[in-house]
Amino acid sequence: MRALGLDVGTKTVGIALSDELGWTAQGIETLRRNEEDPESDFLKIAELAKQNDVETIVIGLPKNMNGTIGPSGERCMEFADSLKEHVDCEFVMWDERLTTVAAERMLVSADVSRKKRKKVIDKMAAVMILQGYLDRKGM
Question: What is its EC number (predicted)?
Fold first, then answer.
C-alpha cells in the first residue's frame, strides 16, 4: 500500500511518498505551482500517483487552532476536489496544524541554511503529514 502526502500551498506543493509497506514517508519533491496552467499541477501529481501505484493521497488540511477551517483550508479542499477528477484512489484530508512550524524547527536544529530551508520546507511538511497518517493508520 503506497500513499502520497501533499502539503498544498499557494505557490508550491510539497510531495512525499510512503514505502511499499506503508511504514515510512520520504520527501520526493516540491512542485512549483503553475498559475497560468493549474491543470498541469494535477496532471503531474496524477502521473506520480500512477507511476508509484498509490492507493491513498493524504492532503494536509490547515485548520485554525480552534479546529475551524479558514481560507487556507478551503483552498486545500478545493485543490483536493480538483485532483480527484484526475486520480482514482482514496483521498484523506489530514489535520496539518503546526507541521510547517515543526518542519522549520527540525531544519533549524539541523543547522540547515535559510536559503536551503526555503527549498525543502514544503517537502518536509509533506513528509510530516504523511508520516502522521501512516503512524495513526498503523496503530
Answer: 3.1.-.-
- pTM for this model (two decimals): 0.86
- Secondary structure class of 47 (helix, strand, coil): helix
Taking the chain (139 residues) in runs of 10, the rounded mean pLDDT of each run is: 93 96 94 93 97 96 84 93 96 81 66 65 87 83
Contact 17/11 with Cβ under 8 angstroms? Answer: no
The CATH number assigned to the domain with range 2-137 reads 3.30.420.140
Name the residue with cell 493508520.
137
Contact indicator for 17, 28 with CB cutoff of 8 Å: yes
Kindly state the helix (H) or strand (E) to which residue 2 belongs, with its residue range: strand 2-8
Helix (H, G, I), strand (E, B) or coil at 87: coil
Domains of the chain, residue spans: 2-137
User: How far is CA 16 from each of CA 41, 58, 89, 91, rounded to the nearest angstrom?
Assistant: 15, 10, 16, 15
**Identity (one letter) of the amino acid at 128?**
M
